[in-house]
Structures are given as structure tokens and as C-alpha cells.
Amino acid sequence: MVLEQIQETYFSLLPFLEGNVLLQLIFIFVLSLIPFFESYGAIPFGLMLGFPTIPVMIVAIIGNWVSVMAFIWGIDKLRSKIKSKKKKKEKEPSKRAIRAKHYFEKYGVPGVALAGILIAFHLAAGIALAAGANRAYVSLWMTIGIVLWAVIIGVLFISGITVIS
Membrane-crossing residues (predicted)? Predict the structure, then answer.
């Protein structure tokens, strides 16, 4: 029906992907690297085209994770350089600023990471790092958010395809 027509159109545009699972997974990996498309865009796209379910989900998670971790690492390095230049000019942070940072790291990063599907995981990571959160803590919660939302999206999409078919 509609799903088959979409698949036919897609494979007529890119015939070399039809039946070639390795190229299909590479395609999903590349799609999941793209900010704002990420795993939550790549998974439904791959599943809609009939690519294998579990490999699509795993590859999309890995691709999204790699791009978000590279972004976190790059932003953290940039922040470190800026901080070292400002350190000479600034004085000690106030007790209030230290306490606010503590609360953000304790509650804010998980919230931002789990909201990553709404605002994009790259942007969520940038927000957390800009607020002064620790790189390892942000990385951990972004990983949890990416995996959790990818599994939810994959299961819901497969359920929807099953109901439609």
C-alpha cells in the first residue's frame, strides 16, 4: 500500500541500496550523524524502508552517539580554552554560583538529556555544557537519553507499521 509505494519510490532513486544491508546500515549511520535528524529521524526512515529492525536501531544509536560525543568533546575543549583565558581576569565564584552549579549537575543534566528528543541531543548537550556541567556527566546522560529515545521510537514505529499492515 502506501508503505510499499514509498519503498518503491526510494529504491528507484537509490537502487544500489535495495537488498544491500551493509549499504543500508551505512546510510542509516550517516543520517543519524546529522544534528536535528539524529537517531529519532534515522530509525523511522530505515524501518519505513524495510531495513532490518534491530541493526537499524543499533547503528542509528551508535551514529547519533558518536556525533553527540564529538560535539561534547569539541565544546568542552573550547570551553577549557576560554576558561583558562578568563581565569586570569576573574575571581572565585560565589557560594551561590557554586550551589546553583551543583543543583544543575544533580537534576538539570538528566532533564536536559531526556528532553533531547524535543530540542535535539546536540543542542541539549550544548545547553548542559554551557551551564557548566561536567563533560563526563553530560556524556553519560546524553548516552542514556539517546539509547532510551531510540528504543522507544523504534518500538513505537514498528508497532505502528504492524498495525497499519
Answer: 12-34, 54-75, 107-132, 138-164
